């Protein structure tokens, strides 16, 4: 007869989770909270996105963020700038969103074109 050592922990069982279902639940909870915020405070959260260039992967990411905002009742604004934009063209967009009371978060989509990285990295810290 084999004796099992009770001091050794048994292997934990793997738990399979339904990521899509959990994500949907989180999105629904967020939409409820946004609605409560609007009703209680009269404030609708807002996201601003600055996209420099036209990388397809970045465009897809920004499009999905916009859809997620809409689903949650969050407003979204976008500025699309050409790939060859200078710091002098990007910073006014950041400044404009920074003082806009309807914007509560600013997403500057990365990666930025290489020409902007050194100059904006210091400014955006």
TrEMBL record:
Enzyme class: hydrolase
Originating organism: Amborella trichopoda
One example of a Gene Ontology biological process annotation: one-carbon metabolic process
Pathway: One-carbon metabolism; tetrahydrofolate interconversion
Keyword tags: Hydrolase, Multifunctional enzyme, NADP, One-carbon metabolism, Oxidoreductase
Annotated InterPro entries: Aminoacid_DH-like_N_sf (IPR046346), THF_DH/CycHdrlase (IPR000672), THF_DH/CycHdrlase_cat_dom (IPR020630)
EC number: 3.5.4.9
SUPFAM superfamilies referenced in this protein's UniProt entry, alphabetically: Aminoacid dehydrogenase-like, N-terminal domain
A GO molecular function held by the record: methenyltetrahydrofolate cyclohydrolase activity
Domain Tetrahydrofolate dehydrogenase/cyclohydrolase catalytic: 17-114
Subunit-level organization: Homodimer.
Protein name: methenyltetrahydrofolate cyclohydrolase
Keyword NADP appears in the UniProt entry: yes
């Amino acid at each position: 007869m084999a004796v099992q050592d009770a001091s050794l922990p048994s292997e934990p069982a793997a738990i399979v989770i339904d990521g899509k279902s959990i994500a949907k639940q989180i999105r629904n909870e967020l939409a409820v909270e946004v609605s409560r915020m609007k009703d209680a405070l009269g404030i609708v959260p807002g996201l601003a996105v600055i996209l420099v260039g036209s990388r397809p992967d970045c465009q897809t990411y920004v499009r999905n963020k916009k859809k997620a905002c809409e689903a949650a009742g969050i407003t979204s604004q976008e500025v699309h700038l050409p790939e060859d934009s200078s710091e002098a063209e990007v910073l006014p967009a950041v400044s404009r969103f920074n003082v806009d009371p309807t914007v509560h978060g600013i997403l500057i989509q990365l990666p930025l074109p290489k020409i902007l990285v050194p100059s904006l990295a210091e400014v955006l810290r």
